[in-house]
Amino acid sequence: MLRILSLPPKPQRRTRTIDIRLTPDERAAVECLAERHETLPSRLTRHFLTQAVNHYNQQHDENHDG
Domain total for the chain? Predict the structure, then answer.
């Protein structure tokens, strides 16, 4: 039987943490945005943080490739 659809791969288990302090207003804004996107605040924060890191690494690589 041919399988056309498959489940996404199991994500790598996360074991390390980075703690950050937020003001009550910053925390509320993160929670509000996460709720609007039906996700957890930690998942939303991790997503944006990794996007920013990837963006700056790419910018750095482009500026030093030539």
Answer: 1
